[in-house]
Prior knowledge:
By secondary structure, this protein is of the alpha/beta class. It folds into two domains: 31-269 and 471-487, Aldehyde Dehydrogenase, Chain A, domain 1 (3-Layer(aba) Sandwich); 274-453, 3-Layer(aba) Sandwich (Aldehyde Dehydrogenase, Chain A, domain 2). It has 16 helices and 24 strands. The chain has helices spanning 68-86, 91-107, 109-120, 124-145, 149-152, 173-186, 201-213, 227-235, 248-258, 283-294, 315-327, 347-362, 394-397, 413-421, 436-445, 478-483, and strands at 3-4, 28-29, 31-32, 34-36, 39-41, 48-52, 59-64, 159-160, 163-167, 190-194, 220-222, 241-245, 264-268, 274-277, 307-311, 366-368, 384-387, 404-410, 425-426, 428-432, 450-453, 468-469, 472-473, 486-487. The chain has a seven-stranded mixed beta sheet with strand order 16-17-18-15-14-20-21, sandwiched between helices. A six-stranded mixed beta sheet has the order 11-10-9-12-13-23, with helices on both faces. Helix 9 (248-258) links the parallel strand 12 and strand 13. Helix 1 crosses helix 8 (227-235) and helix 4 packs parallel to helix 6 (173-186). The longest helix has 22 residues, at 124-145. It is globular. The N and C termini lie far apart (45 Å). NADP nicotinamide-adenine-dinucleotide phosphate (NAP) binds next to helix 8 and helix 9.
Amino acid sequence: MAKKTIKINFDTGWDLAPAPESTGHIQINNKYDLFIGGKWVKPSSGKYFETTNPADEQKLALIAEANAKDVDKAVKAARKAYDTVWSKMPAKERGKYIYRIARLIQEKAREFAVIETLDGGKPIRESRDIDIPLAAAHFFYYAGWADKLEYAFPNRKPKSLGVAGQITPWNFPLLMAAWKIAPALATGNTVVLKPAETTSLTALKLAEVIKETGLPDGVVNIVTGAGETGAAIVNHNDIDKIAFTGSTGVGKIIQNAIAGTNKKATLELGGKAANIIFEDAPLDQAVEGIINGIFFNQGHVCCAGSRLFIQESVYDIVIRKLKDRMESLIIGNPLDKNTDVGAINSKEQLTTINKYIKIGKEEGAEIYQPNCALPKNGYWCKPTLFTGVSQSSRIVQEEIFGPVLAIQTFRTVAEVIDKANNTPFGLSAGVWTDKGSKMFNVTSQLNAGIVWGNTYNKFDPTSPFGGYKESGFGREGGLHGLKAYLKF
Ligand code: NAP
Ligand code: MG
């Protein structure tokens, strides 16, 4: 297949000294087929779609569109690999392949990071320092468990499920693939994975890595496409488990579709996290955490701290510090190592975010955006803060998945716990206080799967991740993540 080098022509109209990461070392094919049974296979419809760079709207590559027939091929390949090789292989040998995947991701980390940033619009600092190292860490972590399952679950004789259908979103493309593939392989399952339509490239690069490791054909299959491709996986009758990360809306469709079948499922869905600042908190650290929690990665984080609760006595000072910090955020070329806020992932997502900003204004909230220029091409949104919102405001209740922060005040602990829990979601939360007893009291009363104390958006392969209520069910990461791919 022809290889090409991507050249970026980025004009932000700013006079900051640029520090762009080079793209000379990466290889993106002009066209990608489906990765089925260890081979690159043309889509049966012959159809391909474009993937573009949301920061400048330039085309990056053509990606195959898989239909139900292709998905069937992939599931058959996965079943064959499960029956004939993978479920029979000694666990120690399975672990070696997973270690190899981890090492190759590390070796190619720079290339993965640049491609992630090009395809998805996130700052290179994030893909380089968070997405890619964490993806490798997940493979390392689960490789270690492969031959120790009986110690992880003593006296329970864990068995693999079979073929796992996995569907991922566009905000952490490679990392989400790692969260799903690594535990599935470690527990002896085979995989059919569909990445999100707008960010398939790093999953396809991962397919190249997987081929390079010599993993037996069909153990991991990667089929690209849009929602219908995902639905074909969900509805295939030879899939044993669905692992889905995405919106609550699609999660509900999936849950309906698999009701009455034997398919197991884990659903990691939307969120509307509360970040709570008490008057005794280290305020500068808290402000940095708030900014990190909602504005870095453009708010494209399911666990983004999109609701902020400030104790009344420190309201004015926190708002001033937040606004000052927002003025210093660097928005622009995601490949620039200084960039804090990159591009919105797609035109559709930008339209959604702008719709909510309009709703916020119409609801009477007061808006604040920093005084910065946005690049001319591509999809961009200024970090946005709303004050004067109420609990019933739509921008407080609904997931926006963009850099929009809705701020409220509170006086007492009981009041803020009530307010923070007053949401259909229950994925994550953050608490900022200097008092250990208050931290323990508040964190234990928040209905959220992940609660950070005096920090935010910290991830680790050993700790489980997942939500309550409309944020889904099941956990990924840690021992909990293994359990979701086993029967006892
Ligand atoms: P989405 O629209 O639900 O899409 C997620 C994935 O599902 C994509 O691969 C999508 O394909 C596919 N899909 C769409 N319709 C489908 C269907 N009917 N059946 C099966 N698959 C289908 O979500 P998104 O907009 O990509 O991602 C943002 C959402 O993900 C947010 O709500 C966010 O909170 C959530 N999220 C949650 C977590 C978590 O761990 N809880 C982590 C990250 C993101 P295409 O995109 O190709 O159409
Ligand atoms: Mg793209």
